[in-house]
Amino acid sequence: MEQARLKALLQRHLDNSLPPEELKELIAALQQDTHQNTFLQELQQALAGGAYATPTDAERKDVIFRNILQEAEEQEVALLLPPAKRRISLWKAAVAAMMIILAGVAAYFTLSHRLAGHRPALAHGDVQPGGNKARLLLADGSYVTLDSTNKGALAQQGNATVLQTGGGQLAYNGSNTNDKDIVYNTVFTPRGGQFRIVLPDGTKVWLNAASSLRFPTTFPANERRVEVNGEAYFEVVQRESSPFKVMARGTEVTVLGTNFNVNAYTDEASVNTTLLEGRVRVAHQAHAVTLVPGQQAQVKEDIRILEQIDTDALLAWKNGRFSCNDIPLEAIMRQISRWYDVQVVFKDNITDTYSIEISRDVPLSKLLQFLELSGGVHFEVNEKTIIVKK
């Protein structure tokens, strides 16, 4: 493809006027290294000297950026979403996102180096993401290490057989029992760990990093009760005669059959219960509320209900992603700290909010690069400590 043709296609893509057949032509052309270099040069000129007209109408920008988001999702690439109040950074990130889609990840890091000036400083190599790992505390006080690879029976606990089914999942096979025959197990995920548990009634639980779930190995006939620390997502099997109850930092969540998420980390300001399907009752001291799908109950001294929660972002951890939309940096760094098992130290007071959409499987350095690209923040990594500064 001639350079003039490449420039023309890029201009139309920036103007949001490139038809699908020409977009395919541009993508195909950019598989060649020579065209990738030309593309990078053109983007650099566009950002530095305004060679391309930058849309000034906010609504038009939003339309273009939504198109970029859709393309990124189809290509399954990581994408940074900077704060809306930084309009210049937003447009630069949009161009960078198009570059990811069109020119590939390797070329992206060349451009991100030019835009951000540097990558996060790593003192002793990169930090790898977490994975499927946990410890199981049995009724006799002994521990079993859990991972992604082992399969088969682990133990007999009361009337239940404990099975590791592979892929980071634990299952219990057993029948209802009398109260006197009940024994309890606890699954602990470390910082940098996650695990799934299928409870004796078939209820599925996803346990996030630095969390625990305590439960009976078989449920009595009239009630199912478990205890959570940290964060867990539940898909509860419906039994009208046997309500399912979750205890979390003094909050009780009661359900019959539903899907919901409980965030009860001790370093978070509140216990948050978010309902995806069905109905739950959230009680704390003398207060109680009933949620409908899409609502979140935030429990402190009392209970506050939030409407229209972004459930896709809230459940991103369960689906292997970080998804934060206009969130304070400190809250994002708490998630990063748990998953990568690192400590975070803020050298400066950063009050800006940030947004990011990226896989939880990427190394720490890549995640921090995307955050740096939005502007206003820089990171240094020294072994297992992240230093955050302006």
From TrEMBL:
Pfam families: FecR, FecR_C
Domain Protein FecR C-terminal: 322-388
Listed transmembrane segments: 90-111
Keyword annotations from UniProtKB, A to Z: Membrane, Transmembrane, Transmembrane helix
Gene Ontology molecular function: sigma factor antagonist activity
FecR protein domain mapped to chain residues: 186-281
Name of the molecule in the record: DUF4974 domain-containing protein
Organism of derivation: Chitinophaga varians
Organismal lineage: Bacteria, Pseudomonadati, Bacteroidota, Chitinophagia, Chitinophagales
